[in-house]
Amino acid sequence: MGHPPEVPVTGERKNVKILGAIELWRTRFHYREDHAFNADTYLAFLEQLARSYRWQGAILIQDNASYHKDSEVWTWFRCNRHWLEVHQLPPYSPELNPTERLWQHTRRTGTHNRYFASRAELETTLSRVFGEMPHHPALIRSYLLPFC
Question: Exposed, middle or buried, 54 (CB in 10 Å: 0-12/13-18/19+)?
């Protein structure tokens, strides 16, 4: 008889904080690893996006994470509205967020049912999965079809 696979665990939760955004039309995935999810780290991520899109303009659709609604973040949005249009998703609607599909892909192809002996091993796996995305646009696009 078959037995379910056993995945070793340490009892310690290893996680990595990653902010992400996807450009739907060219299936480009932008991400930033950081130490926390807060207004400061989100502003740093927005500055990263600004370096890519300030000259052409962009529409940002974001969920309702608390740091997305921070007053400093909205001050930044007001200062950058000449190139950036911002829209909020309705509360509790991850099905409307295309980046959620890429997180599912990341779990499916990189982290699901895997044991990571160290945080560095987890980070290496995430870098591999994210690094492969630009090389397989048809695969990534298939996750995003409902949004295009």
Answer: middle
